[in-house]
Amino acid sequence: MDGIINVNSLFTLALFVGLAWNPSDPCDGSFAPGECAAGNRVEEDLVSFHVFAFASFLFSSLVALCLRQAIRLIPPGGSRDARVNRALLRAGILASTVGSVFGCGFLMLALVDVVQVKLGRLGCGGSDSARAIAPLVTLVPAAVLIYAAIVFYTFTR
Q: What residue intervals traverse the membrane (predicted)?
């Protein structure tokens, strides 16, 4: 639980830094040629994906905090009356995991839009955008799949 909360907090901080950036600022410097420059739709999507990611990470963190608090309410040594509802605990862990996975997906999409704003649209010939996002769209889904597989493994044991 603590790991989920800490990682989500770092991602949330990154989201706030990303939201503070103004993609329309002419002083910020886009490297994209005029015909490859990202339009307003990409900038709108950038903000939307940041908000969706923030909501997902916040959801995941709040669920994890609630689960951690519920576990801490059980006295040390545990009395016979104090029990953890395993089904509810598993559902909470699953909900927190789903929130983190969706948050990572939306954050990745926001970063793809940042690259398009800075380097040019993905479909534009000769654009460096595709090369810039290749590691992002390869490594993030791979990490999310590993994370989801480990969570699934813990549920089957």
A: 48-67, 88-112, 132-155
